[in-house]
Design brief:
457 residues, alpha/beta, Rossmann fold, Dihydrodipicolinate Reductase, domain 2, 2 domains, 9-stranded mixed sheet, 6-stranded parallel sheet, 15 helices, GFO_IDH_MocA-like_dom, Gfo/Idh/MocA_oxidrdct_glycsds, nucleotide binding, inositol 2-dehydrogenase (NAD+) activity
């Protein structure tokens, strides 16, 4: 999609089949041995095949996910991989990650003098000799960091979601076009695309295993995540970045930060994003001063348009962070000839009898490890997979759902994608003394979206 602000109808005007090629081709979903998962999938040839040469990685964002992603990259086969630079805004995070990775991969860590700290630390990793950079900061910074990585000529693995607002999504799409022009690989941490059971199941469904799709359901219902209280010595910006999950500009709300996985699976199934949605949400339990702005529950009805696999199909989406309730992290689809629990890779007949179950065996750490095997093996063959577009579209799907729950109004895809509402200007942040995009009132509370009043498009 050359124009990041092009409408979905314009982007898909050619044919349904072209839509399918674009959405799945963007995945670059490679099997461990190099076989392509799905007849429509292709990857571009790169200018350089690394073969068995040492590949160098840099890490931007030293939280738990970034640390684990770096270790998974170091655990790939086919040739040596070394960590040559790492960065975080917090020194304690950077040092903890350095010690943790070195303790597990002693001979593969060569960055003792390239541990960078601060809001500009990411740029120093881009100036290093890393071949691949891992972007794993809070997602509000992802567009800025991704753009910098592509400008620096780096292959990229970036965690999901890839943005927290529509301008950020468009920035990702624009930088992704640059990546294609420069022959750079782009991989997004939507790891279900790299799990054998999911791939096998989606392929069967798209080939008619349950007939025409009637209804889909997607859930990420659980107890929630950590809270990091304010300390007296913190500036407002530092506090928000420490407690980033609870600020929409940083984390996107949990519909974007977590539930994107489930929404992405249904987009994958349908070969593209929904055309509109409406929903409800709020802060019923998690509503203290340490809980920033975000909701603790969202319920969204998404509508898919004229794709290869459905016209007007609804997806019912739930995500919730409240303890003591029914929990589920799963995806489901109902069809004219049966039902599928996608998350368990099981297909049932209309009478409830099991019709098929995948017997695929996943590797240790499943898709989280497999996605790195796939990326590095592709680069060693001189191939450059690109998942940037579908990563951006699935991120935008989650943001559109949040727009609906925050506003209480229906939202159309084209309006959502073209929204000019920017939650934060991360480029202007140079230190913890910079102004935070959201300021608390005299009681320490932050502005929270009010359905029926809040403008989101």
């Amino acid at each position: 999609m050359n124009d990041p602000k092009k409408s979905l109808s314009e982007a898909n005007h050619d044919t349904k089949q072209e839509s399918r090629r674009r959405f799945i081709k963007g995945g670059g979903m490679m099997l461990a041995g190099g076989a392509i998962a799905g007849s429509q999938v292709s990857v571009a040839r790169g200018a350089h095949a690394y073969g068995t040469d040492t590949m160098k990685i840099g890490l931007v964002g030293c939280g738990g996910r970034g640390t684990k992603a770096a270790m998974q990259a170091l655990s790939t086969s086919g040739g040596e991989v070394k960590l040559v630079a790492l960065a975080d805004v917090f020194d304690n995070n950077a040092q903890t990650t350095y010690r943790g990775i070195k303790g597990n991969h002693k001979d593969q860590v060569d960055c003792a003098d390239r541990i960078f700290v601060g809001l500009d630390a990411f740029d120093k990793v881009m100036q290093s000799d890393a071949d691949v950079v891992i972007l794993a900061t809070p997602p509000g910074f992802r567009p800025q960091h991704f753009e910098a990585a592509i400008d620096a000529g780096k292959h990229v693995f970036m965690e999901k979601p890839v943005a927290t607002d529509a301008p950020g999504v468009r920035r990702i799409l624009a930088a992704n076009e640059k990546a294609k022009e420069k022959g750079l690989a782009v991989q997004v941490g939507l790891q279900r695309h790299h799990e054998f059971r999911y791939r096998e199941c989606i392929d069967r469904l798209q080939n008619g295993a349950i007939g025409d799709f009637i209804l889909a359901r997607a859930y990420w219902n659980g107890a929630g995540v950590w809270v990091r209280p304010r300390k007296p010595e913190m500036s407002e910006l530092e506090y928000q970045m420490r407690n980033w999950y609870y600020f929409t500009w940083l984390g996107g709300d949990h519909i974007d930060e977590q539930h994107i996985h489930n929404l992405d699976v249904i987009n994958w199934l349908m070969d593209g994003p929904p055309v509109e949605c409406q929903g409800q949400g709020g802060r019923e339990v998690r509503n203290g001063i340490d809980h920033g702005q975000i909701y603790d529950h969202h319920m969204v009805e998404f509508t898919y348009g004229d794709t290869n696999y459905g016209n007007g199909m609804k997806m019912l989406s739930q995500c919730r962070h409240i303890r003591g309730c029914w929990n589920s992290v799963s995806e489901h689809v109902h069809g004219t000839k049966g039902y599928c629990d996608i998350s368990k890779a099981r297909i049932y007949k209309p009478n409830g009898d099991l019709a098929w179950e995948s017997d695929a065996t996943e590797i240790s750490e499943k898709g989280w490890q497999q996605e790195h095997h796939d990326l590095f093996s592709a680069l060693r063959r001189g191939e450059v997979p690109n998942e940037g577009e579908y990563g951006a579209y699935s991120t935008m799907t989650a943001i559109m759902g949040r727009m609906a729950t925050y506003s209480g109004k229906p939202v159309k895809w084209d309006d959502a994608l073209n929204s000019e509402i920017q939650l934060a200007d991360t480029d202007s942040m140079t230190s913890f003394d910079s102004a935070a995009p959201m300021q608390p009132d005299e009681k320490g509370r932050y502005e929270v979206a009010v359905p029926g009043q809040t403008k989101t498009v």
